[in-house]
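Notes from hallway chat w/ T.B., transcribed later so I don't forget. T.B. wanted the structure written out for a chain they're using in a teaching module, and asked if we could keep both sequence and structure tokens in one place. Agreed to drop them here.
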Amino acid sequence: MTIPSTLKTTGRAAASLALVALSTVAAFAQTAAPAATAAAPAAPAPVLDTGNTAWMLTSTALVLMMTIPGLALFYGGMVRKKNVLATIMQSFAITCLVTVLWFIIGYSLAFTTNDSAGLNQYIGGFSRFFHHGITVSTLWLPGVSNIPEFVFSMFQMTFAIITPALIAGAFAERMKFSALLLFMALWLVFVYAPIAHWVWGGGFLATWGVIDFAGGTVVHINAGVAGLVCALVLGKREGYGTTNMAPHNLVYSVIGASLLWVGWFGFNAGSELAADGLAGAAMMNTQVATAAAALAWMFAEWIVAKKPSVLGIISGAVAGLVAVTPASGFVNPTGAFIIGILAGVICYLSAVKLKHALGYDDSLDAFGVHGIGGIVGALLTGALADPAINALGKDASVGKQFYGIIFTILWTAIATFVILYIVKALVGLRPTTQEEVEGLDISQHGEVVP
């Protein structure tokens, strides 16, 4: 077909115009791309949050105070005079021992990611062995909390310290000091660190949706169940049931309980890892639940035993502190109030009635208060979690919490039992009958309170 010359001319002109237009668009695109890039600069690097860091430094000191001198005095006042130094020594020595072990290996096992994805469900790795790789510029949760990782590790260390120290209340007045040190070292590595990883370090319980704001499962159920196993394996104290074993100085215990109460604000509100509204809610919940539980225990005892005791009200306060721990950052204050009332009554029945009915010697009610209180709190966290307080609680359920409780009890009970028999084979668990009757102060440490 022949094309008219005029159309040829017009077509060439159109083609030329099209080429010019395309060239213009291309040039514009090339110049616009850098402009668009310049309009969206890279996000700034996370910067240390001084407010959060100041709060976490304070919380860390408060939680350390819970063990020394808080728990040391609380337990020390409840034993007989011949065992007071040995009991206080246990808390102090555990603080020193766990500090060293946490620095070397505990933190890494609990809070790092294992190179194996399968193993990471159960235990962390060794990347922070001896705190390797942490500098003053290393942040924990960069972009979220923005606190130094040193501060985070130190905060978690105080939790690792008080958990084994709580166990000592179950076997008070009857374990050799050498056995205690060996048992606590093995228990920290093989029981505490794995369970902390399961719940807080990205392990399988966290994946399943188990929630624990500040340690109901990791600390209290863990310590309480381990304490019960210790009490059963060691057996009863010499003269239990026939000899007067009343507390020798409840003033010490009141001071200790008061220090525990104040320190618990760091424990619960500090677990938010930030100075914000949720930390304030956790603090309020802690106060409300503790007061409610103390009164609930006191009135329950008043009804049953006809007199409200000092030992009863401070035990109730600790029961409330324990039970609200997993829930403190998930429930509203009304929920905390309910938790406190139920924990006070249930822990009273456990520590006073259940223990005597079953006949085991949980010397200072580590299981009756911490084990049972932790279970009550964990279950009620699933039932009462309020998404308006913490959105992470929207999928909480009693069923998920129950799974967490069962797995914690099973691992803690089995591992604690095995560790005890290893220690028994190596150094023995109990002093001689004569040494126990004389008192652990003189037989284990060569000292007495005049």
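Follow-up for T.B.: The mean pLDDT is 92. Might be a good example for the class.
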